[in-house]
Amino acid sequence: MAENGNGSARPKVAFFDFACCEGCQLTVIDALQTHLELVEAVEIVQFREAMTEKGEDYQIAFIEGSCTRKEDEDRLRKIRAQAGIVVALGACAHIGGVNALANLQPSLQDVRQYVYGDKWDWYNTYPARPISAVIQVDAFIPGCPIDRVEFLSVVKQVLLGKTPAIPDYPVCVECKLKENVCIFDKGGVCLGPITRAGCDAICPTYGDGCEGCRGLIPNPNENAMQDVLLKAGLSVEQLRARMTMFNAYDPAQIEA
Amino acid sequence: MSKVDVNVNVHHLTRVEGHGNIVVDVKNGELVKCELQIVEAPRFFEAMLRGRPYTEASHITSRICGICATGHATASLRATETALGVKVSTQTQLLRKLLFHGEIIDSHVLHVYMLVAPDFLGVGSVLPLAKSHPEVVKRALRIKKLSGDLCAMISGRHTHPIAMTVGGFTHLPTVKELLAMRKRLVAAREDMNETMALLKTLPWPRFQRETEYVSLKKDDEYAFIDGVVATTDGFTYALPDYRQVTNEYLVPHSTAKHCKHNRDSYMVGALARFNNNYEQLHPRAKAAANELGMKPVVTNSFLNSGAQAVEMLHCLEDSIQLIDQLIDRGLQEEPLYQFQGKGGEGVGSCDVPRGTLFHDYIIDDDGLIQGANCIIPTGQNYANMEADMRALVPQILDRPQEEITHLMEMLIRAYDPCISCSTHFLDVEFL
Amino acid sequence: MSLWIIDKSAMATFVANVMGDYRVVGPKAKGPQFAFDEIEDPAELRLDYNTSILPPKKYFQPQEERLMTFKRNGDSAPEAVIEAEATVIFGVHTCDLHAMRVLDQAFTQNFPDAHYLTRRRQALLIGIECLEPCDEHSFCKSMGTLTISEGYDLHLTDLGDVYAVDVGSEEGLTLLKTYSDARLATESDMQQLNRALSAKWPRFPYKLELDVDELPALMSQSYNNPIWETLAEKCLACGTCNIVCPTCFCFNVYDEVDLNLENGERSRRWDSCMLDVFARVAGGENFREQRSARLRHRFMRKGLYLVERYKHLGCVGCGRCARLCLADISPINVFNELHE
Amino acid sequence: MTQIAEELLYLPVMAKVLEVESLTELEKLFLIQLPDGHSLGNAPGQFVEVSLFGIGEAPISVSSSPSRSNGAFELCIRRVGDLTNALHTLQPGDTVGIRGPFGHGFSLEKMKGKDILFAAGGLGLAPLRSLINQVLDERGSFGRVIILYGTKQPKEILFKEELQEWADRKDVEFHLTVDRGDETWRGNVGVITTLFSKIALNSRNTVAAICGPPIMYRFVLMELMGKGIPETQIYLSLERRMKCGVGKCGHCQINNLYCCLDGPVFKYSQIKGVEEAL
Ligand SMILES: Cc1cc2nc3c(=O)[nH]c(=O)nc-3n(C[C@H](O)[C@H](O)[C@H](O)COP(=O)(O)OP(=O)(O)OC[C@H]3O[C@@H](n4cnc5c(N)ncnc54)[C@H](O)[C@@H]3O)c2cc1C
Ligand code: SF4
Ligand code: SF4
Ligand code: SF4
């Protein structure tokens, strides 16, 4: 086995999941279809979705899912204490993702009651939050689900000893590079101008406007984006829905 | 039976989606406790949908589950379309079926090869399997890539499909892509045959327990999307009456909502579909089932994996036919549905890899969702899983504790439970 | 050089013949719009297209292109990768032909760039004269790019049943003679061509409120104009305008390695000076942190900097950026407003 | 301008690291040898593009004087990010990719016969050192040589031994300062501009060469202007993001100027009105 950029042998890697659909872990499994050598490049010691073996000795932790319960925090802190590098895997871990939609509802009690009726108080959940609201995170792999290529790229960057970088430009760049017909030209709406790229503009490529699952770029011009969306015919409700679909999480929600 | 004490406590069941525990407590040969506990964090999808535009529903609910994302999206779209009175074209129906087949194969191959096979081959996961049986793992990855690519060709990607929308598709595959895919599907017959050959060699645990099997049913095809709800006890219901089947209830010992119909429990999933819809299987799939010694009604829950393999074969063959039909008709861009300013209520249902899934929406005249109910397959299977456990434990009490634990895990795993689809799971502190 | 005539009905054969020996690219329908793409069947070629989403520069400077491959063992030298293929590009509008001159300068001056130049040398450009404005966003007439007399190998003008083919190079002539049955134009063909050319002129509006030659001077006085701040309020900094522009050529460079970290490649990808971090240096200082500064830089490049350096304006009036800008920022409006 | 075969424009040559010396916590000095003992042929102020494959490439000024090259050259590199971190792990015998030299350096000819004032801040000494040593090696061709050098703290001072040699020379006026001293520090405390009071200049006949962080330029320029040094006799070396080093990628543009082609060394008169420059 060749040494990697750090001069150390293959690092031990573990996967963990919190509130999520586990689609990102599934995407990791899918990455094996084309890159089986991944299992040679790193040593996977924990991956509950796919394996029974369980190693507690790992250097890199990939964490999927949002933190939605007090007891999740302890688990997160334990992982942080063990792992040299913590990577947030996917929108739920990165920005709260769809889980944070519950935070927008009138109250969490109302949400629980709606789903569980009079047994609502059996629950101990609190407003969903990205894992970075609880522990320090070294790198993010955005997306709902993550992009396989980007996942592999982050793994490689870590192996090379680099600070894993993700694009800080908007989806429009990738969309234009692919020479897509702009969704706005088809009468639709899209958050591509303010959403972080790295997905290869997959939604516009398949005819659907960007929903913002990768979070916003640094310094987005949100006002201008809203003007564009209103001009494209969205109602105020639709506008709010679009802007919050994956980006509903707001630190103010968890202060209470 | 010997007077033994057995204490099985599987914390965080592995190789399933989501978090669950198995607790079995036998004192003096007496089964005191036998539970499947769900420790998954609830995610409240139904509540989250309230107030959202109907156009988002399929995209939000596909996030209930990364594996059956397409199934959720399809059921969601069917519910929305029923509520809004949207008719979908034949082309859309064909594409949805083809896409659905991709998901069934994708999910089943993952389950059979990567989650179940390691049990039979005596390893803890697919990773050591890659060393000990590389050809098996490579075959699995090949089939998985094929089904993933099939999904991606139609909807952009397998997990969280993009191009499917209310009333149709925002992107169409090209004839060139369809032809290339057809070629690959035909070539994959060989991998399917190998899969069957492998399954024939596996020592399936001997276990029988009669129960009621519930699935969608159609006269003219092996039902995955739409149809009626049918059971092996002879009942049928129209989709809007799904609650008469599911009858969700809470039981004191468990925190997950259970379902029951004619008996104390029922089973959904590949085996249930197989038992209900055997006649509609593609002849090759039927032949394969015969080779596995499977004929309805199969009452060994472990053989759910066998039914999954049979369905993979069926879907492969049917996909080839669907592609032929699509090419014959020629693909046309169709105008997308425009909201008419009138809401309504609708139920949509699909038989996703793990069983029958229901979405039920109320949409208002502004196109905003006012209420939602989703009943997922694994929730319907809970009572049946526990009933199976209760039936199995006494039969194996004489075996070593380790083996009992392993068999219990295998039993639960056979259901391919998707615990992370926790739209309806309660969550309390466990001791 | 010389004028030829080819029947429209013979175009398909011409294209098919060329396809035998060259990669042929040209405008093809892409949904309701058009994009340059490889022609697999002559019927796909849409010489009647209005405009393409991306300009044909992508065949000389691809969106993403490998510069070299390397091994990471430290001992072996990297190997240059130059992927070029003999190509004939059909249907290049005159604005895009003008834009090629800027790129030619940029990639030849000071340090010639083999990646660009090798492709350029292996390509033949077949232009086509626009007889109608492509849409409300273009302003080629204002920028002096409505027609062109050089910079192509062949140049077509639609004369109804036939195309007039102006030969711009020896290679073009050989191509025409080898692969088509075009005939030399007669006196009456030439008259017809001249009529078509003079008839087209009034169809195009002149939109610039000053003479285009005064544009650089106008820009050099506009550095501190408040317009940049105003535009910055609605600009999304999405980069679209740069990406679709036929005269933009800035790029970023990336290294990629395989999973065993042994082999890799270095490539470059189109970049945009409208993006937030384009001018950030190590240490965090960003020399054009404000959107207004980035907008100003972009327009200064178009109207002043490039003409100083390469003798050609950086805006050819193709209108792509204006057409696709969601904030409706258009060079022609900017120039006119600065002029007021 | 150095001529490069077209197809080799972006292709680094594999150069050998001969020596590595730690200068401070953040800076290391690398002695590098091109293949087959080729000389770099650089002018003071020019830079090379340094590559580690898989990590990336960055412009680094040549810190050694062409007059002392012996076929090898020196780079003084501060550890700030991925590439520079990785460079800091290199050992003698390792290889790095090198392209260049690029850019417009200091014009020695125009300085001859003049008094020369060097003002370096922090890492800005790295490129200036190349020029300083060249000037010292041709000491007779120049008038006074004044070197002003400032860092934030004493521990950030680069090339300490060399500074001592300069300080010891009778024909060099050397002044050192730190923004903040420590218990061992006996020298001048204060920003670099505080050193100007210590020197008298013959403004007409003085050429100034400055290099440092952006903020330093504004203040040093004010001092120099105050002393009446003509704008055409002030040279500065600027830093921008660069992805090619050869005037194509556009990242280093300062208004209409390309830092890599027209600079990195500029005459102040050239960039005075150029808003993005300073
Ligand atoms: C002409 C010239 C001469 C130079 N000479 C020298 C010299 O002699 N010695 C020397 O040490 N340096 C010199 N430099 C500077 C040197 O080029 C940079 O320090 C180098 O490029 C840093 O590369 P890096 O990969 O190590 O850092 P990078 O990884 O590129 O980043 C460095 C810093 O910037 C931040 N950063 C970079 N990109 C981003 C981003 N997209 N988002 C957020 N943060 C970001 C990083 O967090 C980090 O703190 C010179 C530069 C020029 C232009
Ligand atoms: S479709 Fe979206 S991402 Fe693509 S160019 Fe248009 S706005 Fe940008
Ligand atoms: S396209 Fe328009 S909105 Fe986007 S960066 Fe350019 S000017 Fe700004
Ligand atoms: S600036 Fe706009 S109009 Fe001008 S050439 Fe570029 S894309 Fe075309």
Architecture blueprint of SSEs:
The complex is a heterotetramer of chains A (about 260), B (about 425), C (about 350) and D (about 280).
Chain A: E1 12-17, H1 23-34, H2 38-41, E2 43-47, E3 60-64, E4 67-69, H3 70-82, E5 85-89, H4 91-95, H5 101-104, H6 108-116, E6 125-129, E7 139-141, H7 148-159, H8 171-177, H9 202-205, H10 222-231, H11 236-244
Helix pairs in contact in A: 1-7
Chain B: E1 6-10, E2 20-27, E3 30-38, H1 45-49, H2 57-61, H3 69-84, H4 90-120, H5 126-132, H6 134-155, E4 164-165, E5 168-169, H7 175-187, H8 189-201, E6 212-217, E7 228-231, E8 236-237, H9 243-246, E9 266-267, H10 270-277, H11 283-291, H12 304-329, E10 344-352, E11 355-363, E12 369-375, H13 377-396, H14 401-414
Parallel strand pairs in B: 6-9
Antiparallel strand pairs in B: 1-2, 2-3, 4-5, 6-7, 7-8, 10-11, 11-12
Helix pairs in contact in B: 3-4, 4-6, 4-12, 5-6, 6-7, 7-12, 8-12, 10-12, 11-12, 13-14
Chain C: E1 2-7, H1 11-21, E2 23-30, E3 33-38, E4 64-71, E5 79-80, E6 87-93, H2 94-108, H3 114-121, E7 123-128, H4 140-143, E8 154-158, E9 162-167, H5 170-179, E10 183-184, H6 187-200, H7 215-220, H8 227-234, H9 240-243, E11 251-257, E12 263-270, H10 291-310, H11 320-324, H12 331-339
Parallel strand pairs in C: 2-6, 6-7, 7-8
Antiparallel strand pairs in C: 1-9, 1-10, 2-3, 4-5, 4-12, 8-9, 11-12
Bound molecules: flavin-adenine dinucleotide (FAD) and iron/sulfur cluster (3 copies).
